[in-house]
Amino acid sequence: MDPQRLGQLVRITRHRSGWRQSDLAARCGVSRGLISLVERGFADHVPLYRLRQISQGLDLEIVGYDVRSRTGVVDRLLDEAHAHLVAGAVELLGRFGWEVAPEVSYSRYGERGSFDLLALHRATSNLLVVEVKSELVSVEATLRKLDEKVRLARFVGHERFEWDAKTVSRLLFLPRSSTSHRQVARHASVIDLVLPGRTAEATAWLRHPVERFGGVIFASNANLARTRRGRACRIRAHRAGRGQPERENGPARAE
Fold it and tell me: Comparing C-alpha atoms, which of 175, 180, 179 is closest to residue 84?
């Protein structure tokens, strides 16, 4: 069982139910501190019978080394968390005048993948590659794939959208949680080489992207369970089979 995955699932499911940690603790007959411990990725320090109590309180079940939802597939909840973070990133970029294209796939010289977001700030000709992770499982794999996308971004942007960029920047969006902060801090010596900026600095740069930039934005996930209406964004959603731009509203705000 992956303790970080379980912690993220407990947190997301709790938010979907509109409960505080103390509410869930009372429902499960455990302490609020224990709920916090699990959500921060330390489930391996908690007895299995306590984990079962918490899981049952959220209509989850632990089967062997897997966690399943009684009402659906667990991955659906994690995908939903990712979708909300993407929507929040789209709103933030749109607010500052970026043109945003979500889910841009590429295949070039054997390298295949998809940009979570590819964005252009037309006034400065700065192209931005945005990687969104609801869970930072592997720092090495994330940075390696991000390097690949940055290297191919100019080509893809020009080929797909006729964007002519002078510089290419990169941002990594993560949930604003103690787990995310701890993961980034633990690997800071590696992450800071390519993503030295953090939320406040990155947000300021998005307003005036006059030079190449790399950073991490911790986006608030307090409202993962409920979508709020965001400001209208200028979005060019060039997805396969769609000819019309798509508008997204973002539930998560960068903080």
Answer: 175
Residue 102 phi, psi dihedral angles, 5° rounding? -90, 155
Amino acid at 112: R
Query: In whole angstroms, what is the distance from residue 92 CA to residue 90 CA?
Result: 5
Least confident of 24-33, 202-211, 240-249: 240-249
- For 6-46, write each residue's pLDDT tens digit: 887 888 788 777 889 999 999 999 999 999 998 887 888 88
* The length of the chain, given as a count of residues: 255
Structural domains of the chain, with CATH: 3-72 (1.10.260.40), 77-219 (3.40.1350)
Q: What is the pLDDT of residues 59-109, one digit of tens each?
A: 787 766 566 666 555 556 667 778 889 989 999 999 999 999 999 999 988
Burial class (CB in 10 A: 0-12, 13-18, 19+), 223: middle
Q: What angle do CA 105, 91, 122 make, to 5 degrees?
A: 70
